[in-house]
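Q: I'm writing up a methods section and want to include an example of the input and output format. Could you take the sequence below and give the corresponding predicted structure tokens, formatted cleanly so I can copy it straight into the document?
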Amino acid sequence: MPALPPTAADPGADLVTPDTAGTARPAPGTPSGRAPDGCLPGRGALTLRGDGLDLVFRRAVDGDGRRWPGRAREVAAQQLELWKLGGLVDDVRLVVSELLSNAVCHGHGDVALRLTCRDGEVRLDVTTTGAAQNQPCAWGPENLPSPSEDDENGRGLLLVQALAEDWGVSEDVSRVWCTLTAAAPADEPECEVAAAG
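A: Here is the clean output for your methods example:
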């Protein structure tokens, strides 16, 4: 019969401490693939508020930022449907994708999307920690890029300009915001009061 490996019960046992000793581990019962706080990496932390939602991606937990715009598009589209603003879904998806992609590419910290709706106006705020602080923003509503036909980049803010009612960049370059408003459908008939018969 082969000898059993030493255990802590054996007084002379030489126990080897694994390299992972002392590191954070998921709580008991946490499904595999989740972070120690129970969140799915790459999905961001979603907080619903009375007038909208916040979706925060943490680089230390959510890993590859290239996946974040897709998740943000998904969450924004679902929220617009709940608000009965399905007509804005395509435009908001595109704007969210552009602003989140810029935050991932040009920021170095966590990235947050705030989506709010008041009186039919949807506002998107994308903030990032670790942006190029105290440096002037190269692009903004008054100064848009002019990419050549051969340029592969540089058209995102032009799309935001075309789709948004208004948009801007904070002085410290940590936040970009925009507003979009749903247009009333042109083919929808005016409401009529039925005559009592």
